[in-house]
Amino acid sequence: MTDETTGSGGGGTPAGGGDGGGGDGAGTIVGMQLLDEMQTSYMEYAMSVIISRALPDARDGLKPVHRRTLYAMNEVGAVPGSRYKKCAAFVGEVLKEYHPHSDVAVYDALVRMAQPFSLRYPLVDGQGNFGSIDGDRPAAMRYTEARLAPIAAELLGDIDKDTVDFVPNYNNEGREPVVMPSRIPNLLLNGASGIAVGMTTNIPPHNLRELAAAVSHLLEQPEATTEDLLQFVKGPDFPTGGKIMGTAGIKDAYGKGRGRLVVLARHTFEEAPNGRERIIIDELPYGVNKANLVAKIAELVGERELEGIADLRDESDRSGMRIVIELKRDARPYTVLNNLYKRTALRQTFGAIMLAIVDQRPVVLSLKQALEVFIEHRREVILRRTRFELAKAQDRAHILEGLKICLDQLDEVIQTIRAAADTDAARRSLQERFGFSERQAQAILELTLRRLTALERQRIDDEYEATIKTIAYLESILASDQKVRSLIAQDMAELSKKYGDERRTEISPDEFTELSAEDLIPKEEVVVTLTHRGYAKRQVSRTFRAQQRGGVGLRGAKPTSGQDAPSGVREDDYAEHLVSTHTHASLLFFTQSGRVFQLRVHELPERDRTARGIPVNNLIEISKDERITAVFVRPESVDGTARYMLMVTRKGAIKKTRTQEYASVRRNGLIAMNLQEGDELLWVAPTSGEDDIILASQLGKAIRFPESEVRSMGRDTQGVRGMRLGKGDNIAGMAVARPGADLLVLTERGFGKRTPVSDYPVHHRGGQGVFTLKVTERVGRLATLRVTADPEEEILLISSQGMALRTKTGSISLIGRQTQGVIVMRMAADDQITAVAPVGVDLVE
Question: pTM here?
Fold first, then answer.
């Protein structure tokens, strides 16, 4: 539908027809599309915001409000070295002459230009409370005073020499500069940020010495690339310091105009008098509010989302920033620090967008383009300044030439002047008789008697010669682009020497990677238990203290009747699998159906001994009819000792597969082994491909054979026969033989013994084996086995009733194969051994 506006007077006169019923002829009503009007009006509004408010000019790096504020301060005489003046006076002058908007916007702009934590090189020298990095608001403008900072004079220098264009102010009663002459590359020097309609800019600040060097290089080598300029401009240099991680974001920002910079706080470690470790934060990422940061850390500590912090203090003073984070005695400093980077503003992402106004339109600039715009602006300023100074010098030379002629013919000149009736007549007479111009004649009439002395005559001659030389020099500049470039380079060298300082922001060559949950978990030895009913948990290994052989163990997950005690396990549940590992390892869970799943150890919940954990099917996607029968620590690297995964089933089938095939296990699992009907996968171990394998049965038989007799197969295969079993017998365990080691066997009733591996002869795969334990009703069937070589090695035993015993293998008797063994762990009548795992010797309390 077309929306048109029509006249309502005179009985509905059409648009543009008449004056609306005999009115006073106020104007013509024009019909137009509403969509067209909205598009036109909005575009005009958007461009006004972009050009006149939100985005900086690429030439001087200033937005209109900043430019007007600096110009107003300069006009009222608040120059470097002058006395301070009230900020309210500057705000009033800006509003009155140049910027008829909110006084808040003007004062905020002035305050920001005075804050050393906002601008790398502050343009305003403030006196009073101008806010703080803690987010404190500045005092009211009637209390604060200011003047231009010395470096601001470099922005305004030569502005009175026709170096830039001026335009009428908002009420046509004055004039204001379109841009500053700016000797400094302020766009990059102090950066800029702003949000316009549909676009935003976020230019980081830089170091003056680096920018000056880059400008000089670009003047000498106009064809230089961004890579060349990166030799000089290392990266952003924030006023608050910090550390930029990696150079990829910097290269993107300088090459494409957009880049993502990861900035970290700077920290050091120190030891407190009480011996505790401290993290000292002395520099923050750009724009971070220190008070809010400290409050956030305190909040996270209070909510127990940050562990290991004992005390937090802000000891910042006039000498610098100092946030003290005191750690608990058992805290790991780097773990705490990683947590702080993960959860607080100690790590910030600076999204660089090099957007600025070039030729009255917004443009995303590369580093080279930004410097080229500045160089071109300086070239224009120098040429305009030179033309201005040349015109003045030529005008002065013209006057001096007239004075020289006058002095050479002084008597005639005086006689001519004395004969004239008035000043106008004298001027005309001088012009007619001596050929002076009007300006020369006027200068002669204004000549004082003291200028007629011989000394003054010599000074006029000297000034004339100097002026002629100045004219020649200025003309040479206008005639040589190389001289213009040389002047810009001289300016850069002078500015670098006068205002340059050392870089504050460190740039690390290491790229920052997002911290994973594993990065925030301390790497510590743990014991993982999995019950028969599928409840999993992890415990710190030091929870279990070492005991002597024959102890009754510590209470683990206590079995309960039904659901009376949710923290325990049911009567029909018991700890079936136990693995000693560390929190950064990966566990492979094998099910009786031959499938495999993967889970990181730190993803398991940490619980105490009496807790049952959580259902493992909440962590991995196993089906209801599956149960986990083997838990194995996936090798962190494929080396000579872990080239294969060896699997054994209850009925004696064996198979090996290359470890690489389990490097990436999907969440819903993979097929590890195909099984015959009625068989189950129960044991898994890493092998080198050249080991000897020992299989033992529940009725006390064991067979040793070379692994080489089991060929490597893919995952989706059945395997071959490993041991021939008698009626009613099943495999009780599998182990990898090691020279000089012992085979430790344990029965259901807690009996055990060690027998040298050398006592077991090497047979071929598929045999019945030899006796390894005399099975009786008193000792029970063979429950598990393990190869051990170090008498100081500690093992952890867990029973079906949740009892746990930690003991050294050396405390278990070393006896022959055809014996019953000795009591290792005393068992209750209805209890039996279900799992055994090694524990590191360094974890003994």
Answer: 0.66
